[in-house]
Structures are given as structure tokens and as C-alpha cells.
Amino acid sequence: MKTLIGQVYMKNKALRVICFIVFFLVYLILMPGCKKSGVADDHGNGNTDDTPSLSCTATKADAENLQLFPTDNAWNLDISSAQVDPYNSQIIAGFASNVIKADFGSGLWEGAPIGIPYVVVCGNQTKYPVVFRSNSYDGNYGDESDAGPYPVPLTAPIEGNGGGDSHVIALDKENKILYELYNASVNNGRWEASSGAIFDLKTNALRPDGWTSADAAGLPIFAGLVRYEEILKGVIDHPVRFTLPSSKVKPAYIHPARHKVNSTGGQFSSLPFGARIRLKASFDISSFSATNKIILAAMKKYGLILADIGSNLYITGAPDERWNNDDLRQLGQVHGSDFEVVKFNN
Fold it and tell me: What pTM was computed for the model?
């Protein structure tokens, strides 16, 4: 009897050991997949639905699946049938002979990618403090900036590789929040900038009246960029950011812009920040490439929105190696005289 009990005991003990080993191996296999990563890697690839998920990848294409601001927001407004401004002729005369210039493309210009770059990040992207400061390029607008911290990877591309305006843009695709910096640089494991702005893309909230952003007009930059991913999608569904010289910009702003500069444009012969011009419906785009037709169609439906001081009729986009620069230069067939001003004067 003792021998029989001992045999049963030994057999059960062996089974317990086997079970323990099996459960331990299962634990080792499953736990890494169940563990939530609290911090993303620092390349904007950190964590796709409405809330930060356990596993996430972020690509530029993801940005085109997001609704940028509510449908009734000014950035989503079709202005193709809006009234023409009563001072249209005087205003257009100021840049009638100038042509559209795509201030973006492939390759390098003076050693840097052409355009304003951006990254798309996940909800668990590491957030970094931003120190607002002045430098030799521009002043400190920290008193008109959002404090942060900002989930902008320290490896995020800087416009111009740090020369000129040095914009940096990160779009949190899970929380639907846009982060933008101006005159930015990385120093001691944190961002420094002249100004910064945070936009909740789920709301119509504007910046405080009189505040700048990473753009002179107090507008979001990303919302107005021409992006190659939009070409793949087949439609640009927003106004395109553009610039004019100070002499053609009124020192004023209209909705949705929030900030003005000391420009020198005349009262009825120039545009305020936030104003739109649209490509005339009669302008024939049939001879242009498929890519340029998408850009020109957006100019007819959503127009161009004035956002900063710069060169005449320069439109802004993001750099991408898939752009054909020779093709983009064909937009130079479009003159200022081919546009009309959307009414903002009474």
C-alpha cells in the first residue's frame, strides 16, 4: 500500500513540475505582447484609433485619414461660390504679373529639403519641454505660445535643416492634436524655439486674439501644406498656405487668422492675414499634369490663404522625394491675374 501511494505521489509531483514549466513558458511568450509601452521610440513611430493603443505605428499616410478640424471650420470651407471682394481689381493689380511658385519639392536646395517637413506620431510619443527664447534669427514670443510639453521627437526634421524659419511640426494621430514650433532647435535633450502652438483638431477653438503661432498669422501651418500623400489620395480638401511681400499685406487679420505684423500694404490695395484668393472658375486646367490638376482644383474650391510675409505667390508644401520638380514648375503658368479675392471688405 505504501509503495502504491508513493508511486502515485511521485507521478503527481512529476505532473506538477511539468505543468509549472509549461505555464512558465507560456508566461514568457505572452507577457511581452501584453505589456503596454509607456514611452515611444524617438523617431515618431511610437503608437491607430481614437485613444492611444497598446501597439501603434505612425506614417505620413495616416494624417490623410484624419478630419482636420470640424466640418464647419473655416479650413474646410468651400469658397468657390463666395462673393468677390469689391476691391478685387486694386488688390489683384499688386501681384497680377507674378506667377505661382511651389515652395516645395524633391531633392535639396542649398543643402536642405525643399518645403516644411512634418512627422506623424502616436499617442505615447515622448513629450519634451520647450524653452522659448530669442536668438540671432528672431525674438522670443513665449508669451504668445502654448507651454507644452510637446510630443515632438528630438530627431524630427527641422525646416531648412535649422536655417531660416526652422519650423518643426508633429501631428499626434491618436489624440488628433497638432504641435508646431518656429525657429526651433534641439539643445541639451529638449526643444528650444521662438514660438510654439498646439491645435486640437477636434474643435473650432482659435488662438487667443492677437496671438501668433508658429506662423505669423496665428494659423496652423500643417493644415495649409500641400502634401504628396494628398496627391495619392486624389484630392486636396483645404486652402493652400501662401505668402506675399510686406508691401502687399495689410497690417490686419481676419478670421481664422489671429495675428498681424507691421506690414506696409494699403487699406484697399492689399490683403490681411487670413484672407483668401481663389483661382477663377474659368481658368482651364485641362493641359496640366494629374498632380497639378489636383493642386489647381483645390485653388478653385478652397483657394489660397495668406499666412505669412514672403515672396510673391509662393505656395507652401512638404518636401517629398516623389515630387517632380520640373512638373511643379509648370504651375508658373498661373498668374496672379488668374485669381480673384474672396470678399472680406464691405
Answer: 0.85
